[in-house]
Amino acid sequence: MPVAGILLLLAAIGALSSAYDIGTVNKYSYETTVLVSEKCDLESNSVVGHHLKATVHLTAVWESSQNPSKRLIKIELLNPKLSVPKKSVFKEHRSELDKLSSSPSFILWEDGVSKSIWDDPNEHYSLRNLKRGIASLLQHRKNNQDVKETDVSGECDVIYKVEGNSIRRRKGNCEHSKFDKNLSQSHGVRSASAVHQSTSDCEWKEGKLPAISKCSSTEYVKLFSNAWHRPSLCIDEKSEFIYDGIEKEKNIYKNKNIEDIINELKKSQSGLEAGDLEAIFVIQDEKPKKRQLKPTISRLQKDLSTENLSSLKSVKAFYKLLPIIRTSSTEEILQVLHNDKLEDVLPQLLDLVSACATKNCLKAAFEFFEAENEYNSLLEHFVISLSILPRPNLFILKELKSFLAKEREEKIEATLLMTLGTLLKTYAERQAIADAEFIEEIRIFFEKGLKKCDKESEFCVLNYLRSLRNAARPRSAPILLEYALKGGADALEAVLGLKNIPVHLLPPQSQVGLLKVFNQIGAEQDRSTRAIAAELLLKQNPKPDVLKNILKTLLDQTDAEFSSFLASKLMHHISIDPVLRTNVIKLLPEKDINYYHALAQNGQSALFRRPLVSVAGTNVTYGLEMESLVGGMLKRTVFDVSFENDAGGASLLSVGLFATGLNSIAGDAAEAAADDSNPTAGMNLGFLDSYLRPYVFFRTTSELMGHAWAGTASEQTPVLQCILAFSDDEKAVVLSNGMIVRGQLRGVLSTDSSASAKISLWNRNSKSLIKNVGALIVRGVVSVDAGFVFTQGTIQFTGESGIDFKVDVDFYEMPFTTCMQMEHTDLAINFDVIRSVNVPGTNYESKRKKKRVIYIPGRSFAFNKINNDMCQSTNSESE
Question: Which PANTHER family match (predicted)?
Answer without folding.
Answer: MICROSOMAL TRIACYLGLYCEROL TRANSFER PROTEIN, MICROSOMAL TRIGLYCERIDE TRANSFER PROTEIN, LARGE SUBUNIT
